[in-house]
Amino acid sequence: ALRLSYLSAGGHNPAVLEQLLHLQVEATALEMGLHGDRRTGTGTGTGTGTGTGSGTAGLDAALLAVELENRRLEEELLALKVRKERRADAGSRAARWQAQELARLQAEVGMLRCHAELAGPRLPPAILPPPVAPPLPP
């Protein structure tokens, strides 16, 4: 529950996830030691964890290891999904900002065009008389 809460709150630090997994393994080991194998009803409740024999205990340990690895992989997958969603959110925010900036610039260009039209036609360049040529020789 702690791990899921951490992930749903946006946590994705691999070191913290590893610590949470370690705590889960420890808690599961303690629980199995105190209660024994729940399927067969063995266990003394004293913390000795006698089990049903070395073969079954080995299988139980292997099964526990596989289950814990599956949980770790599920957590990693969830963390990757959260990161992907965050990147998608950041991308959509950037696209939204660009669209707003483009709209603002287009509006500014429209206003400048309107001002230019209101100012009226520009004065033509000054027309100067033709240059005076020097007098011709006699």
How are the SSEs ordered, and which strands pair?
Layout: H1 2-8, H2 14-35, H3 54-118
The H/E string reads HHH
| Low-pLDDT residue intervals, each spanning 5 or more residues | 37-52
Mean pLDDT: 78
Count of separate DSSP helical elements = 3
Instruction: Determine the structural class based on helices, strands and strand pairing.
Output: mainly alpha
Rounded to the nearest angstrom, the radius of gyration is: 39 Å
Q: What gap, in angstroms, lies between the N and C termini?
A: 115 Å
Organism: Urocolius indicus
Protein name: CCD17 protein
Biased composition (Gly residues): 42-55
InterPro entries: CCDC17
Task: Walk me through the structure.
This is CCD17 protein. It comes from Urocolius indicus. InterPro entries: CCDC17. The structure is a single chain. By secondary structure, the protein is an all-alpha fold. Helix content is about 70%, strand content about 0%. The protein has 3 helices and no strands. The protein has helices at about 1-10, 15-35, 55-120. The longest helix has about 60 residues, at about 55-120. It is rod-shaped and about 135 Å long. The model is unreliable at about 35-50 (pLDDT under 50).
Summarize the structure.
The protein is mainly alpha-helical and 138 residues long.
